[in-house]
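User: What would this chain look like folded?
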Amino acid sequence: MRITAHSLHPYRLRYRRTVAWSDVSEEAAIFVMLRLRDEDGRDGVGEVAIKPTWVGASVRSLTAVIEDMFAPLLCAEFSHPAELRERLDRIPENLVAKTLIDHACWDLHAAREAIPISIPDIPVSWALTRQAPSLMAQEAVRMRDAYGFRTLKVKGGQGMDVDRAALREIRAALGDGTRLYVDANGAYAPAEAETYVKMLADAGVFAAEDPCPLTPDRRFRALQEASPIPLLVDFNCTSPRDAALFKDQGLQALSVKPGRFGMTWARKMAQDGAPNGVAIAVGLMGESIAGTLPGLQFASTVSSSEWPAELTWFLEMQDSVTRVALEIADGRIAIPHFKTVAETIDWDAVRKFAI
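Assistant: Here's the prediction, encoded as structure tokens.
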């Protein structure tokens, strides 16, 4: 395979409401799409969400990195996306640029293989962002009733008392038929983590994601051993090497995000974890439908009713750059038949929402 042309397309898609993440409030999301073309005229695309506090990049910095450092590496022939990813990894850091290229390359690989992608519907969850406890409870009921979600991810980190109150109100509103887990985004100090995790367990939560900043050391092992529920590791695990270090310290559950690592690393992290009994939760990176589609391909190989995929954030977006829609019913997402993500892109919409 030889890539003969590439182009970058930044765009902004509006949310249906103002969204409060752990660090900022947003009314819209910014994305960059990379389009690759091979010598036979086939296309592949990849998309990443540009949130500087998540990926450490802006549209301008990402564009410069790809044009200055990675574009020359795309010119040499390669036989498989993993081969190109190995070439990219010779340059340190710049994970978001590698992720974007990796996704587009896998999509181009699918175009060359010409095998229609047929994925059965898979279980998915919804993430409740930080709000007042009563509002989180209202949203939980609304999303459960509209889409049948059986698992909800609750964003914690608003203070232990507020988090406790939120869980109490959410549980009272939902009853016992919905499973909950909490992501505190590392908001609590390590000295508070054991108390916090036990509070979550007492509230009926089945897993605690990043209750404090987690590092693969003896302190992590001690916290997991003291915890009555699995610790779901996310933010400080950024590579297969990190995942291996966490496994050595008793890792039970790992958030794997194709939109953060790229498909090559996501597949490796899941494959390496499976023989050791590590549960894989397919995490969200604020994807639109264009970024959700490849994530769902990956999730179809690892997700279960115990750990449904989080890839539902596209529901918050008013706008789309694809010609396909995704439907969720009874807590499961029906994935349309398609050969490549590239063939689903509405390029008029990409131009309409361009920045």
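The chain has a mean pLDDT of 94. If you want, I can go into more detail on any region.
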